[in-house]
Amino acid sequence: MNEVIKAMKERRSIRRFLPEMPPEDILSQIAEAGIYAASGRNFQGVKVIILTDKKKRDEISELNRSIGGWGEGFDPFYGAPAMIIVLADKTHPTYLYDGSLVMGNLMLAAHTLGLGSCWIHRAKEEFEGEYGKALLSSLGIEGEWEGIGHCAIGYPADDLPAAPERKSNRIYRV
Questions:
Q1: Which CATH architecture has domain 20-154?
Q2: Which of 25, 71, 103, 142 is deepest in the core (most CB within 10 A)?
Q3: Residue 88 bridge partners (DSSP)
């Protein structure tokens, strides 16, 4: 089987991570794989933020928890020590699709490099608020950006789960 297709079939969302931080060079490779995703008219209107600072990670986790409505102490990033946040330029008509393709590339790249990942939502709400806007400003990011998602990344605490059975009647030919 083709190695890319094999990786696509094996990758799973991870919801329990070890606290060990992945190496910066590996995180950089994952981020670079992300920005090689296809984009409408090759606009390349997606930015990624590699987040490894524990204080900032915990602040965003708390904000995400609050937006999601979970109780105190819940970590919506499942203990992942790193994340890559995906932002897309809202002025481009395909921004949501372009950002989603980047997320897919990030998760697939993490898997092929021996890491686990999970797409975590609520980035849209985070970056509509003051905290997210201040973070973007501190990085010199200007313009109309929407948070597409967080790619929580780390070493899986457990073995990869088996792939669920695929539902039938999903592929048609004409």
A1: 3-Layer(aba) Sandwich (3.40)
A2: 103
A3: 46, 146
